[in-house]
């Protein structure tokens, strides 16, 4: 037995810490807050409302519904689009900071709309300043997912992968590891490696994890005249190291 003790310690030191468990939407308030970290508005025509956020059976459902007479009528965020939808966004309570002492896996399974004017996302963005931004899932109204890493607003790595339009669930994952002061991000879809991107100076910078259904903006317009649904399940964040 005495030979097992050092092995157990070594395994313990390397074990993954579960930051967000795959059933987190069954205990929403423990792991998630409503809306974006900064509020209800961003750079599309959707304004987030609690009524559009639903959880059940381990699944998050965000619904965008056409709205009329929104108050105020335009988004508070640049470029101040007219608000046309009530929609849903959530962000994780726990922030993600990649350092040389850890690495992260950020995983989820998504049923994502791809119609013109629908702009769902699963992404990391800076807690203070900007960037970092890493888009693990970003669908801009076409049958593609965009993986993006922003060094600046104009220096952006983008890899597009085909995405089915039938609303079937597919998994996305980003594995983030420090590379000096930068962060290396390996992107996967359905457990298949797709791309590596590097974020300049992202090491040590805290990031929020956001799941949102924004509308129009980068995904084109006009958006749908009926309801749009975006679902996420088995979202899981693990950290190796400290
Ligand atoms: C962002 O910066 C990293 C680190 O310097 C570099 O490896 C990467 O190529 C840059 N991305 C783009 C799109 O230039
Ligand atoms: C909207 O904001 C996101 C997140 O910061 C950014 O990636 C994107 O470039 C912005 N798009 C437009 C059209 O403003």
TrEMBL record:
Domain of life: Eukaryota
Keyword Cell inner membrane carried by entry: no
InterPro entries documented for this protein: Beta-glucanase-like (IPR000757), ConA-like_dom_sf (IPR013320)
BP GO annotations: carbohydrate metabolic process
GH16 domain segment(s): 13-242
Keywords recorded for this protein, A-Z: Hydrolase, Signal
Membrane-spanning intervals of the chain: none
Recorded GO MF terms: hydrolase activity, hydrolyzing O-glycosyl compounds
Gene3D superfamilies per the UniProt record, alphabetical: 2.60.120.200
Signal sequence interval, chain numbering: 1-15
Keyword set includes Hydrolase: yes
UniProt protein name: Glycoside hydrolase family 16 protein
Organism: Cylindrobasidium torrendii FP15055 ss-10
């Amino acid at each position: 037995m005495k030979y097992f003790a050092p092995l157990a310690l070594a395994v313990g030191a390397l074990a993954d810490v579960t930051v967000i468990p795959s059933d987190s939407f069954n205990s929403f308030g423990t792991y998630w807050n409503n809306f974006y970290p900064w509020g209800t508005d961003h750079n599309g025509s959707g304004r987030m409302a609690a009524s559009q956020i639903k959880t059940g059976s381990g699944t998050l459902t965000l619904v965008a519904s056409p709205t009329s007479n929104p108050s105020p009528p335009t988004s508070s965020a640049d470029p101040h689009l007219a608000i046309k939808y009530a929609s849903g966004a959530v962000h994780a309570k726990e922030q993600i900071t990649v350092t040389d002492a850890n690495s992260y896996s950020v995983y989820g399974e998504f049923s994502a709309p791809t119609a013109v004017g629908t702009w769902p996302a699963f992404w990391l963005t800076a807690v203070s300043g900007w960037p970092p931004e890493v888009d693990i899932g970003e669908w801009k109204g076409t049958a593609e997912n965009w993986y993006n890493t922003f060094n600046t607003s104009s220096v952006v790595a983008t890899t597009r992968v085909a995405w089915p339009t039938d609303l079937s669930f597919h998994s996305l994952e980003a594995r983030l590891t420090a590379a000096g002061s930068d962060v290396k991000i390996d992107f996967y879809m359905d457990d298949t490696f797709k791309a590596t991107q590097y974020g300049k100076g992202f090491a040590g910078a805290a990031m929020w994890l956001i799941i949102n259904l924004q509308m129009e903006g980068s995904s084109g317009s006009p958006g749908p005249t009926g309801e749009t649904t975006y679902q996420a399940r088995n979202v899981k964040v693990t950290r190796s190291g400290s």
